[in-house]
Amino acid sequence: MTTLNPTHSNRRRCALNGLLALLVLLPGGAVEAKHIYSYRDESGVMHFSDSPPTDTSAEVSEQLIDVDPKRLVYLREDGPTNNRRFSLWNGYGGPIEVLMDFEDESNVVSEPRLPGTLVIPGMQLSQVLQVQPIDEHQAWTYRFSYRYVHGDPNARPDPEAVYRLPFDEALSLRVDQGFGGKYSHGDAHSFHAVDISMDEGTPVRASRAGVVMSVESDFYGAGTDIAKFGDRANNIRIVHSDGTMAVYAHLALESVVVGIGAHVGAGEVIAKSGNTGFSSGPHLHFVIQRNSGGTLVSVPFAFTIGGERVTPTAGQVLGAK
Which domains does the chain have, with CATH numbers? Predict the structure, then answer.
């Protein structure tokens, strides 16, 4: 979620060029990392790559380096000061809902009138706001903010949707925490989530077909300090045909094999399980979510196993018997 505070005024000369004050809140300010591989060839030339080299017999060094978190939503501002237009680029692979409001306004009119909301499809630039002074001969000023939420609020879950197990059905894996789990499933966005105990490196498969909306694969480390690790879980968000979204979390570092915008089929391998973020041990956190009036909420679901719908519960073993 991102917050923006653009400010405009005609009270100071410098503001006529469009004074834009931005406050962008990236998710928790967490640090991400990348593996960097380096080696020196026979000619003495150093080579660097973000993937292991396969065409050399030289000794290869490997290190983790911190990288900046990704920003997928950007604001664009254009037009004269007395007719300012704001557009947002949605770099996610699915829709977001943008909620806007003035924090301060005097002698201005906007289109649309605020507060207001709109939905921007994935991978699209859309104009979200136009602001003009009512009387250019009088002092005018404004400041507005916005936030965005994943998903289309008009989406409705398909009650007949089929969710296969998010791992090889030949495996037998235990549900450590089910719906409403007291440890970490108390909030609306995670109440109907399940935590499945899973060894690190286990292939994670798409439970349902959809389009990859977002990917985080560069976090490393895990722990139970929520302030430190709460926003550091590698994850994939996939949007389905009915607008619901599946989140697969705590994935292994750099194990994701799908990209934003990719179409994935049910059962397709999308990553490897891990132990990243707020976690007490290796497991897969799986949840179905939807946008409910500007808030992410989890959706109850059942896995289809052997043709039967099974609601996962804590202590239950899923998969091969």
Answer: 7-27+70-150 (2.60.40), 32-67 (no CATH), 172-319 (2.70.70.10)
